Amino acid sequence: MKNPLAYLSAQLDELKRTGSYFRLKELESACMPVSRVDGKDVINLASNNYLGLANHPKLVEAAIEATRKFGAGSGAVRTITGTMAMHMELERRIARFKHTEAAVVFQSGFTANAGTVSSVLTPDDHIISDELNHASIIDGCRLSRAKIHVFPHRDVAAADRILTELDSVSAQKLLITDGVFSMDGDIGPLAGLAEVAERHGAIMMVDDAHASGVLGRNGRGTVDHFGLHGRVQIQVGTLSKAIGSLGGYVCGSQDFIEYLYHRARPFLFSTSHPPAVTAACLAAFELLEQEPERIETLWSNTRYFKAHLKERGFDTGASETPITPILVGEAKTAHEYSAALFDEGLWATGIGFPTVPKGKARIRAIVTAAHSTSQLDQAAEILSKVARRMGIGVGAAGA
Questions:
Q1: Which DSSP symbol is given to 271?
Q2: Which of 137, 224, 263, 295 could be stapled to 216 by a disulfide with Cβ–Cβ 3.0 to 4.6 Å?
């Protein structure tokens, strides 16, 4: 019988031809600065474990204790029997941390964005979105069926012009941006966009996935970083990166969060977090409050590593955060470079089209608070040595 999915094999062959094909690497240890991957120990610059909390003893202990007390799973979606007392405690804790009236936890950061955007807008409404916003925002915009207006990356004036043209429209308007952009590591111009949103009566939304635990006091994100409390109606964050566990959350007014309880489809139709995950997240927020020095170490390591890369002639683009792209040009080059780095003991991901534009492929390195300076020294040396050997861009001119 003819295989009706045979066309997918042809598409895989095309990915192999263009150098975009990849094989999943298997992590065989905890997510550590030096991790065991595919049978070898490598410096890990590929994870989002910004503060090193994914294997912190307090999170592990909290997860074990919650499992012993409440079991392995919650048993249902939140609206049936799946709302445990600890779920509500976590949402209250997040709301206090973010200085908002309320918060709701989703099963992932992706569903937090997609579920929120798609539930608060109708086909009559308008979305004004940065061209480099995360895929979860893009999917949420499409699911809402609202009219989508894309403005050039970080261009506040362009967003203002779009909203000016929509001033006579009575429908809802949502202005949305990433707080930190995941591929380039630059920070969204939230202060300017919030001002534009206020001027035109638009809803202001920020996805702070890569700013949660990284920017602002104790990691409160870009709203705190820019001093915009009360001026951003929808804040999205993640529990899967700096928080060290799993999930996403949305913060805002009490009525807004209760509306999401009733209308956000990922919330309504997905089983709630198991006790272990919920307890680990609660422990992580305790650590953010008690150990702000973790964030200071993260930024100290970031500055140290970027200075090393600059000395070696690498192009890290517009990065302002621990997300450090090393631009190499074509996707095939990025993937070959990544594979060669791994062979030398460095795990750093190659990223190309369609995740980033053609011609702007890169290695994405992410520094964490858990890395030592000697590990970062070694990583920079491996990057330089392999770049020289492969004749890759300005990196080949390094030490």
A1: B
A2: 224
Compute the chain's Rg from CA coordinates: 22
Per-residue pLDDT tens over the stretch 150-174 = 999 999 999 999 999 999 999 999 9
Query: Per residue in 326-341, pLDDT tens?
Result: 999 988 999 999 999 9
- Tokens linked to 17: 């031809």
Q: Which of 171, 151, 225, 150 shows the shortest CA–CA distance to 235? A: 225
Q: In the predicted model, is pLDDT for residue 212 greater than 70?
A: yes
**Cα three-residue angle 142-21-19, rounded to 5 degrees:** 110
Indicate which residues carry an active-site annotation.
Answer: 182, 210, 241
| 3-state helix/strand/coil string of 275-290 | HHHHHHHHHHHHHHHH
Q: Does the structure show a pLDDT above 80 at 398?
A: no
Q: pTM to 2 decimals?
A: 0.94
Hey, is 51 helix, strand or coil? coil
CA proximity to 324, closest of 301, 345, 344: 301
* Closest-CA residue to 238 (of 227, 223, 250, 224): 250
For residues 179 and 187, the answer to whether their CB atoms sit within 8 Å is: yes
Instruction: Reduce the DSSP state of residue 84 to 3 states and report it.
Output: coil
Is 247:240 a contact under the CB 8 Å cutoff? yes
Length of the chain equals 399
Where do the domains of the chain lie, and which CATH numbers do they carry?
Answer: 18-47+292-397 (3.90.1150.10), 57-290 (3.40.640.10)
CB distance 339 to 348 below 8 Å: no
